Known about the structure:
By secondary structure, the protein is α/β, with parallel strands linked by helices. It folds into 2 domains: 2-174, no CATH class; 178-446, Rossmann fold (3-Layer(aba) Sandwich), CATH 3.40.50.1460. The protein is built from 17 helices and 8 strands. It is elongated.
Amino acid sequence: MASRGRCRRDGRLVASVARREGHCHPCCHEGRARSKTGPAGSVSRYQAPATLCYVPLVLATAWGLARLARRPEQTLALVVALLALAIPIDAVGGLYQSLLEQGMGGWVDRFGRAADHIPYLWLVLAASVTAARMFTLTVARRCIAALIVAAVLGLPLSAIPRDRTLWASPDDEDEVSGDRGQAALAAEDAFYVQPKLLERELAALRRGRKGVIDLYFVGLAGDANQDVFMKEVNAVSQLFRERFDTEGRTVRLINNAKAVAEAPIATVTSLGMTLRRVAGVMDPGEDILFLFLTSHGSREHRFTLEFRPMRLNVLDPARLRQVLDASGITRRVIVVSACYAGGFIEALRTEHTLVIAAAAPDKTSFGCNNEAEFTYFGKAYFDEALRETYSFVEGFERAKARVAAREKKEHYDSSDPQMFVGREIRQPLAALEERLKRAAGRRAGREAVTDGRSEEVSGRDAS
């Protein structure tokens, strides 16, 4: 009977905390999310675990502190006190985030990333003091109480992103759940059009021109869960068409629900088919492959290929080298933009290859979010450096310096981009650079003549 009574009390306790949790700690955060999303949003069941994890953490903390003080009957009172503490702390944290979002956070720059942990340190100290006063703990037990609060409440909360909310926009909900990708791939038209998309892209590739070093661009966006990779491949492929003469020699492989009807999906198989086709139309003694891979990466140096619900083959350095060698393409420029991308360099290096990695083998890169048009490295290398120079090597040196400056300014650890240049690839790249410079000079000359004629005609009309 006693155990059943305790179960009933515990059940009422959990329900009470859940109700209070819904109106206390997240109230400020959910209010901001609701105001941003508007009436089009809805409650996200996928966000619930990250948003409501505060409930079991508070329960566990209060239970541990009450047992430490040998006052189990005060557990509920301590739960209420901890939830009440969270209100001003979360309000101040929300104000801090709002200042940063509005570009008014320059005054906190000197604190670096440590500023993000101040609310959790505040919570640990406040909760420890509250427990000490409620239970009149000895000095030794106060220290133990502080350790309990830090281990059970502070550290777990600090590891959970603060942007998790129960109220999500339709797009956010889709991105979190993966339903967009599943629905897109399951649609009948997409199911049949995908093979045709790859066939069409490969059939449209132009053959290499005799006596001309042609560049063939292949861009691969690996992770369907974030739009930045798709945006990056689209932007870079357009840049190469306009600036590096790859019109008719460009293939995009993209994992993203928004592109499922217009671009082939990115898999090890589609990459292998693409590289074999490129090898078949290019002049292997003259032309150069530019392979751009952008996605997430792991410490085990696995490049993320993900488009749920499909289970895609793993792409690691050895597998990528195997696919490249099987294609028969000799001259290669390979850019891997992902965390820990430097782990690909050793496996891909040959005397005929330039390999660029956005991060060292043991370091992360930055800028992977849906709002961004480029990752940090992609922005510095493609959108800035390669708009200034036709040299892939010089462009890397410029981009590396810019990435380092940005990371230092934003208080991130250095990603330390890496590069390997094979001895035999230097001369073909220099020749390609000279050809592109001459072509750009001719275009500039024609544009100057056209502008001069337009001004002359305008002058006649004015007279």
